[in-house]
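Handout, section 4.2: multi-component inputs.
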Amino acid sequence: MQVRQGLSTGFGFGLWQTPRKRQSLFLFILLFLFGVIVTNHVTLVNQTREQNNLASLYKSRQEELAAATAQYDSLKAENARLLEVKEETIARVLSQEGQPGLMEELKRMQALAGLTDVTGPGVTVTLNDKPGYDVIRDSADAIVHDSDVRHVLELLKSSGAAALSVNDQRITNASYIFCIGPTILCNMQRLTPPYVIRAVGHDPASMAMSVQIDPMLSLRQTPEIGLVVSIEPSDQVTCPAYAGADNLSQYIDKLEVPAA
Amino acid sequence: MKTRMVQYTAMTIICMVLGILIALQMKNVNENTVTADKLEELQYKLIDTANKNAELNTRNAELYQYISQLENDYAQGSASIESIIKEKERLAIFAGLREVNNYGIQIDISCSPESLIRDSVIRTFVNDLRALGAQAISVNDERLVATSEIRATASSIIINGNGYNRQGTFSIRAITDPSKEAYILSYLETLKKSVLSDATLRNDQYEIVFQPVKELSIPALSEDSLAFKIDLLMPKTTGQ
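Output:
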């Protein structure tokens, strides 16, 4: 009762004393709120106009990207076709010249350089981030880093891998694994998880074991951290050829071979 | 009475308009999810793809020209195998089967006599040198190829199947682009600092010295090396 009296006399300066005054106060509050919202709305409409420009620009860039990606796919297919034609033409020329040995040597060099598909016994190791990874709640060890991919590649090399690939990118002498933001760069291609690492080698069981017993990977797979690692030995694993077979100059143009 | 009705109606209208405005604002806020960052990321992807397309276009044109030349020669019965031998040599160089030399960087890594050099330190420098564009790399004169292992055992580091004492100095040599010397040296300095300040390596007291070398030589790797497993690499012919 005292509080109500205080409101109507002290704090409210008597405004609550009559219904008319109460109505006026209510109307004042309502109109004030209305004014604030209208101002805010006008501001927002201006922002929306900018935002709409951003959205339409985004949409048009998306369309351009789709067109560029389609063009890339078609150029890649053309590149693969030309490489095949080149191969066939070289074989015909060498056969005409009576040089079948040179063809064999060429094929051998291509294989050693990583420019041919390699299929054989091997292992597939898949590294993936913890499902539902939360940047605040989860440890940074719960996601795959470039160093993890390099680590698995080293384990596989040490246990006898003859050919390696990461997300179908063949590992060659010029390959490196480096992180760029949330993606990993390999052969100038941005790769995203899951990272599927394939290795062809004489002893798939030994390669699989080297990853399975690795202390660092074992620790990272504990429920507290949650990194996902799957290991699958198999009789048939394929590491695709390096896709830039016609573009090797950039990797060897500084190399001088001493005269024999 | 009439005045009161007008007042109520006015207030109802105001409240309704207010409600509509609030609803509109909420809708706008929810719809506007495109941010400048997202657009920037998309634009980056677009530029990246456009660059790749331009590069592939050039490569395809070069391939086409090479094939046309070979086919013309073949049709005239005057095929020259020189270009094919050159092609084979390029592949051999890329595969690491030829000794090569040129300007490069040499990095010597050692640690205190009580400690052992870790394979991870050598691998870090090797990977980063590759990322810096090194075209040929060797560690203690072992040419590194795609399948070369750098693995520590109790007292040695195994490279291409050969062991090197972990208490000795490991010498990494790399042929790099001389025009990028300043950048590469500054990058290596940062990398060196990060290795020296690593808490897990501090007790090993690493000493890392690097310098550009006007002319350095990197040996070839033999086809018989353990790093190559030619029997697995060569495609199987029918009947094998």
